[in-house]
């Protein structure tokens, strides 16, 4: 059993995928059962073999037709589907359960998610200040925002760290990333990449590696933040989006940890009722210099909303958030992100669904 466990984890999943492994185990168990029956009832075994063969072919065909994965890798069940948004076709990238990216093949500047629009506004803010615009993306997904920047800010230096090479290939094959794109991809763990001495100081570092409720804890810690800071320009911005619920336990601890590295942090909820929602998306923007919110009020992502300036929490609201409950310092030795997100995972409701009987006094007890 020990050999089987390690063989599955290190080899079999890579070679065959989980669906084929489960199907193979079922066939092996069926074959063992028939072999044992052979000693007692040979005629019954012959009939059983014919029935089993017919069933096997049917099950194999059904399983492969129902397999939801366009591609299954060591990291994700990758699914790609077509949708229509605003009258035009878009490609949708799903990593496990999370709809990670919407990409318009016709218009690479189209952004769907609120956090992407906040990223776009922060990028324009930096473009007006920096002599040279450069960005490092932690997590590639559908490469929606690298495509956006490549089209809106031609000549900018764009690097992507994406741990799964298959995700990068899917971006080329399905999500509209051009084979001649100037975007450079590094298929490795972001922590290992940033542990190296900096080869460039980026004006923007954008985190988008938190997949659904599965958060790689080593990208949330104080030690990791210090490595991000080392690769960031003096006037650069570190943007990261994360999911949390009404209790904001993970958000609070992550924010508290971030304050140990960065002097100025802005918290931007992407929905208005984030205090009562069982699941909300937040963008945190960190840097060594304060953001000019008056200048940001004049910047939008093309929809006239100026989401960043209008949704950003005030300093008083940030203090209130940090004081609303325990705020852990996340470190390489102790980063219980799964426990901090446990209440959000239990609910698994759509973003914006309101939690029951909410009051500021019971944030930590809300689902």
Protein described:
- The structure is a single chain.
- This protein has 367 residues and is α/β, with parallel strands linked by helices.
- It folds into two domains: 2-67; 109-362, Rossmann fold.
- Helices cover 40% and strands 19% of the residues.
- It has 14 helices and eleven strands.
- The protein has helices spanning 2-16, 18-38, 42-66, 114-129, 144-152, 165-173, 190-194, 222-231, 249-258, 293-296, 307-311, 315-323, 337-340, 342-347, and strands at 71-72, 77-85, 88-95, 98-103, 134-138, 157-161, 184-186, 202-207, 232-244, 264-269, 280-287.
- The strands form two sheets. It has a seven-stranded mixed β-sheet with strand order 7-6-5-8-9-11-10. A four-stranded antiparallel β-sheet has the order 1-2-3-4, with no helix packed on it.
- Helix 2 runs antiparallel to helix 3.
Tally of separate helices: 14
Q: Which residues form runs of ≥5 with pLDDT under 50? A: 353-367
**CATH topology of the largest domain, anyone?**
Rossmann fold
Shape: globular
Nutshell version of this structure?
The protein has 14 helices and 11 strands. By secondary structure, it is an alpha/beta fold. Helix 6 links the parallel strand 6 and strand 7.
Write the layout of secondary structure elements.
Elements (H helix, E strand, L loop, with lengths): L1 H15 L1 H21 L3 H25 L4 E2 L4 E9 L2 E8 L2 E6 L10 H16 L4 E5 L5 H9 L4 E5 L3 H9 L10 E3 L3 H5 L7 E6 L14 H10 E13 L4 H10 L5 E6 L10 E8 L5 H4 L10 H5 L3 H9 L13 H4 L1 H6 L20
Parallel strand pairs: 5-6, 5-8, 6-7, 8-9
Antiparallel strand pairs: 1-2, 2-3, 3-4, 9-11, 10-11
């Amino acid at each position: 059993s020990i050999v089987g466990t390690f063989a599955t984890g290190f080899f079999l999943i890579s070679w065959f995928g989980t669906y084929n492994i489960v199907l193979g185990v079922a066939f092996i168990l069926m074959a063992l059962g028939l072999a044992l029956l052979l000693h007692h009832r040979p005629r019954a075994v012959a009939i059983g073999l014919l029935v089993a063969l017919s069933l096997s072919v049917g099950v194999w065909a059904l399983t492969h037709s129902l397999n939801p994965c366009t591609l299954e890798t060591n990291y994700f069940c990758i699914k790609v589907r077509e949708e229509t948004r605003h009258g035009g076709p878009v490609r949708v990238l799903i990593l496990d359960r999370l709809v990670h990216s919407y990409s318009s093949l016709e218009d690479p500047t189209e952004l769907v998610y609120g956090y992407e629009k906040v990223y776009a506004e922060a990028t324009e803010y930096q473009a007006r200040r920096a002599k040279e615009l450069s960005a490092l993306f932690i997590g590639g997904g559908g490469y929606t925002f690298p495509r956006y920047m490549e089209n809106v800010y031609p000549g900018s230096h764009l690097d992507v760290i994406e741990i799964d090479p298959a995700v990068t290939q899917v971006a080329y094959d399905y999500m509209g990333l051009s084979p001649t794109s100037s975007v450079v991809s590094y298929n490795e763990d972001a922590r290992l990449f940033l542990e190296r001495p900096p080869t460039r100081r980026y004006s923007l570092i954008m985190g988008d590696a938190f997949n659904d409720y599965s958060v790689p804890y080593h990208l949330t810690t104080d030690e990791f933040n210090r490595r991000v800071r080392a690769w960031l320009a003096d006037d650069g911005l570190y943007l990261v989006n994360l999911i949390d619920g009404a209790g904001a336990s993970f958000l609070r601890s992550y924010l508290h940890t971030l304050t140990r590295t960065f002097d100025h942090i802005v918290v931007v909820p992407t929905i208005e009722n984030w205090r009562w929602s069982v699941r909300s998306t937040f963008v945190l923007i960190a840097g060594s210099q304060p953001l000019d919110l008056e200048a940001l009020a004049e910047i939008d992502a093309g929809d006239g909303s100026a989401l960043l300036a209008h949704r950003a929490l005030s300093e008083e609201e940030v203090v209130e958030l940090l004081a609303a409950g325990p705020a852990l310092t996340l470190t390489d030795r102790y980063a219980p992100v799964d426990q901090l997100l446990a209440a959000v995972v239990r609910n698994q409701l759509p973003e914006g669904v309101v939690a029951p009987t909410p009051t500021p006094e019971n944030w930590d007890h809300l689902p």
